[in-house]
Amino acid sequence: MTAVRQVRQVGQRSGGTATEGIRERASAFSLRRWAPRPAARLDPAGGNPDRARLLASTASGDWPAMRAQLSAVTDDWERSWLIAAATDVAGFEQWMPGVVEAEGDSGLALLVAGARGVSWAWEARTGARASHVSREQFRIFHERLETAEDLLYRAAELEPGWASPWYFLQMCGRGLQIGPDLARLRFEASVRRVPGHLGAHQQHLQQVCAKWSGSHEEMHAFARESMESGPEGGPLGVLVAVAHLEHWLHLDQGADSAYILQDHVSRELHEAADRSIRHPGFAGRIEAVECYNVFAMAFALAGEKRAAAAAFAATRGLVTRSPWQYINGDDPRVPYRALRSGAGRH
Q1: Which residues contact 280 (CB under 8 A, 6 or more apart)?
Q2: Distance (Å) of CA 257 to CA 13, 82, 251, 270, 297
Q3: Which of 63, 133, 194, 230 could serve as 236's disulfide partner, Cβ 3.0–4.6 Å?
Q4: Looking at residue 276, what is its pLDDT?
């Protein structure tokens, strides 16, 4: 897919009467109309200094620094969020086995090694459709996942109160095709320990997508149920936006635009934004930049320009790989810039 296809959809909807009343609320966090836009920049740390520090330590192979920083984290979701970013750093799978050998009774070492193993496995598989993945790629993929799964189970045994191992086991299980029942158990193991664990919810939403073992109906129901069961001002409202993007992505050209421009989609996006990114309690959350990016893309494709412009402004030019890789995996800044331009200034 190209950015051209997506940009063509922007502006097809000038605004329907169904959302006129709620659209005004989107201006609550807009920048001034003529304020200069910050340059779009892809930052793996999402502007978070703690994440940037961990990424630097990981890239330099400094396990003592990684261990010290992660050991000081008491919030389980924050631990998962930090480690998830570090797993994208290539190469540390080469020296992490030595750490595990030296610190085999450390749940943290096993967790970090297992998490990187999951990411490393998906790198071997690539994001191609199964029909375009070779037999050898699948062999390596499954071999790495099985090793990662063993490490993560050992971490879970050593740290039974942590949700983090179960979060990464969700990713592992989807690759190993463990089936919906076992996948549900891994999700429940995560949220039993941390009910509002955004990553666990995001992974289960992927599990119930039509492209895996679910359906559009199951995906939307899960997203809505999760949002409504969580506190207002929390991040779970973003699941509603992700579900609409997944549904849009699943459709052929033409049908995708017809779907995302429907009034009920806009209403649900506004409701989800009101319960999350536009709620006063959302300010300062560690996953804020990712959530703003998701809503920016969803509102832009839905033709909700004022809401999209506000979400883009809230990103401060920080581009996250997800969800923009849906449009351009090589350079997510390209569709970000195009849709931000199409949203205009409000």
Answers
A1: 233
A2: 10, 35, 9, 18, 13
A3: 230
A4: 98
